[in-house]
Each structure stands twice: as structure tokens, then as C-alpha cells.
Input
Amino acid sequence: MNLQIDELIATVMSLQGITQTMPAQFVLYAEAVGKALRLYKSEDINKEDFLLVVSSLKQDVWGCVAFCEMSDELRIDWIMEKMKEVGGRY
Output
């Protein structure tokens, strides 16, 4: 794992303690990114997939809600569909 991903993981973990003071859309985004990080750490998705999730959900509150409510299998399918939409390149 590279240093930037490790730093992002540490940031997300530190945010868990302050989410009660954050606007709801940021809490949802942090939760969705955390779920994507878990998939990345378990090697179910690669770095490109992870960056696609972060980018796709950045301004999509309802997408964050949906992503958080999905099972891991559906999250992976969602990521693969998004990757097809961007032509397999991110």
C-alpha cells in the first residue's frame, strides 16, 4: 500500500470521532469512502477502482447513501459499472 492511501486511511479513521459535528453529506461521504477503503484493504478492488469511488461520490449525497446500504458484492458490481462508464480508465 502506498503512503497516500495509508494517510487517507488514517484521516478517515480520525474523522470517525468528529462526525457528529460534520454536515450530514460529509458524514455520508466519509462512510462511503470508509467502505471503499475496506474493499481496497481486503484487495477486493484496486487503487484505480478506489479512486473512482472517491471521485464519483464526492458530490453525490444520494449515491453515498446507496453505496453505504449496498452489500460488498453490490458495491463491487457498482464500481465495475462505473469503470465501464468511464471506459476502464480513470
User: Anything to note?
Assistant: The mean pLDDT is 83. The helical segments are 3-15, 24-41, 47-57, 61-69, 72-85. The longest helix spans residues 24-41. The chain has five helices and no strands.
